[in-house]
Design a protein that fits this description.
Layout: H1 8-11, E1 14-16, H2 34-61, H3 68-94, H4 103-120, H5 123-147, H6 155-170, H7 174-182, H8 186-215, H9 223-248, H10 263-275, E2 278-280
Helix pairs in contact: 2-3, 2-4, 2-5, 2-8, 3-6, 3-7, 5-6, 5-7, 5-8, 5-9, 6-10
C-alpha cells in the first residue's frame, strides 16, 4: 500500500489526450442501463462547471501555502483538472442531447452556484467543498475499477471515464492535504464536505430525471418492471461496494494517503501515458 508522502509526485502525471468522440453518441452510454447512463451523463455535464471552480479554489489557496512540495502537487492537480473538464465538454457536445434545451437552464443554475461560492464564501468553505468532491470521486473510482463498470460503456465513454478516474486517484491526496495544511478542522470539513456531496448528487439526479423523462424509453428496457429490477440491482451493488468506501471518508482518522494505487491502476495509468499526445510530471 502506498502511504509515503514523497512518492506522490511520481504518480501525478498530466496527460493531454486525443480522444475521438463521434457525433451523435446515444445517451444510453452503458449498455442496457438507461438510468445508470443518465446519471453518468449528469456527472459529465457537471464537470465543466465544477472543475474550473476547483481550480479557482486551489489558486486562491496558493497564497497560504509555504510547503514547496504541496505547491507542486497543487499545480499538478490543477493541470489534470483542466484537462478533465475540457475533455468532458467535448464529450458532452458529442452526446445526442440537442433536443433537451432545458438542460441549459440546469447548467446555468449550477454555474451560478459555483461562481457565487467563489465570490461570496470563504476559502475554508471552498476547500472543504473540494475535498468533499475528491473524497467521493476517490471512493467512486475505486468502486468502478473493482466492479468493472467501464466494460459495459460505449467505447468513447469508457476511455474518457477510466482516464479521468485514474487521474482522480493519482491526485487523491491533494485537496485533503491543502485543507489540512491551512485549516485542519475535521468537523468543518465533514459538515461542508457532506453539503458538497448533497449539492452535486442532487443536481446530477435532477439532470438524470430530466433526460429520462424526455427519453421516451417506453417498453425498450422492460417497462416499469425492468426499471425497478435495474434500480434494485444497482442499489445492491452500491450498498455492498460503494457506500462503505464513502462512509470510510467520514471517519476522523481518514486520510487518502492510505488508499492503495493498485497494480491494475498503474497499468491503466501507464497505458494512458503512452497514448497521450503530451505528458508532464
Amino acid at each position: 500500500m502506498d502511504i509515503a508522502r514523497g512518492i506522490r509526485m511520481h504518480e501525478i502525471t498530466v496527460r493531454r489526450m486525443r480522444f475521438e468522440f463521434p457525433d451523435g453518441i446515444d445517451p444510453i452510454i452503458v449498455e442496457g442501463q438507461p438510468e445508470e447512463s443518465f446519471r453518468t451523463l449528469g456527472m459529465s455535464l457537471l464537470l465543466p462547471y465544477l472543475e474550473p471552480y476547483l481550480i479557482r479554489t486551489m489558486n486562491e489557496a496558493k497564497k497560504q501555502i509555504r510547503d514547496p512540495e504541496l505547491l507542486a502537487d497543487l499545480e499538478h492537480f490543477n493541470a489534470q483538472e483542466g484537462q478533465h473538464y475540457r475533455q468532458h465538454r467535448r464529450f458532452n457536445e458529442a452526446v445526442r442531447m440537442a433536443d433537451l434545451p432545458e438542460l441549459g437552464t440546469l447548467e446555468a443554475e449550477l454555474d451560478a452556484d459555483y461562481r457565487r461560492f467563489s465570490e461570496e464564501r470563504s476559502l475554508k468553505f471552498n476547500l472543504a467543498y473540494a475535498e468533499g468532491f475528491e473524497a467521493l470521486t476517490t471512493a467512486a473510482a475505486r468502486f468502478s475499477f473493482e466492479s468493472r463498470q467501464f466494460e459495459r460503456m460505449h467505447p468513447a465513454a469508457r476511455e474518457l471515464f477510466s482516464w479521468h478516474l485514474i487521474e482522480e486517484l493519482e491526485h487523491r491526496t491533494v485537496a485533503f492535504d491543502v485543507y489540512d495544511h491551512i485549516y485542519g478542522d475535521y468537523f468543518y470539513r465533514l459538515r461542508w464536505g457532506l453539503f458538497a456531496q448533497r449539492h452535486m448528487l442532487s443536481w446530477i439526479h435532477r439532470v438524470a430525471c430530466h433526460i429520462e423523462e424526455r427519453a421516451d424509453l417506453g417498453s425498450r428496457f422492460g417497462g416499469t418492471a425492468g426499471r425497478r429490477a435495474r434500480l434494485r440491482a444497482q442499489s445492491w451493488r452500491a450498498l455492498r461496494g460503494l457506500v462503505p468506501k464513502v462512509l470510510a471518508t467520514y471517519a476522523p482518522w481518514y486520510t487518502p494517503e492510505r488508499i492503495a494505487f493498485t497494480d491494475e491502476m498503474r497499468a491503466y495509468a501507464k497505458r494512458f501515458t503512452a497514448d497521450a499526445v503530451g505528458v508532464s510530471r
